[in-house]
Amino acid sequence: MDGIFIFGTPATSVIAIGSNDFHIYRLSEALSNKGWSLNPLQFPCGIHICVTHVHTEPGVADQFLEDVNTELEIIMEDRNVPVKGKLAMYGMSQSIPDRSVVGEITKSFLDSMYYTE
């Protein structure tokens, strides 16, 4: 598929995807909005899917590929749109030179999301 590549040669049911053309977290966000669960990766940026028994059910793989193609067409129309939301924070955290503060930032962020009186 134009715009994405698979990292390495998957030997198991986990497939990691990257892009040299746009920020790959945009594809993750778009597919998440369609109900797919992909996980972000860092160093380098990527996303991965773990293929499970559910994915082998009739039509599921075809639907996933169709959704990827549809979202890729939209993303490739404007490759420079920034990543938003929680994936933007996740992506930004890899640019912090002092890696020791990432845990503290993450803890503060999660505390703020789950704050109750």
UniProtKB/TrEMBL annotation:
MF-aspect GO terms: sphinganine-1-phosphate aldolase activity
Cofactor needs: pyridoxal 5'-phosphate
Official protein name in the record: Sphingosine-1-phosphate lyase
PANTHER family reported for this sequence: PTHR42735, SPHINGOSINE-1-PHOSPHATE LYASE 1 (PTHR42735:SF6)
GO biological process, one term: sphingolipid catabolic process
Domain of life assignment: Eukaryota
Keywords, ordered alphabetically: Lyase, Pyridoxal phosphate
GO CC field: endoplasmic reticulum; membrane
SUPFAM superfamilies noted in UniProt: PLP-dependent transferases
InterPro entries: GrpII_AminoAcid_Decarb (IPR050477), PyrdxlP-dep_Trfase (IPR015424), PyrdxlP-dep_Trfase_small (IPR015422)
Residues that span the membrane, as ranges: none
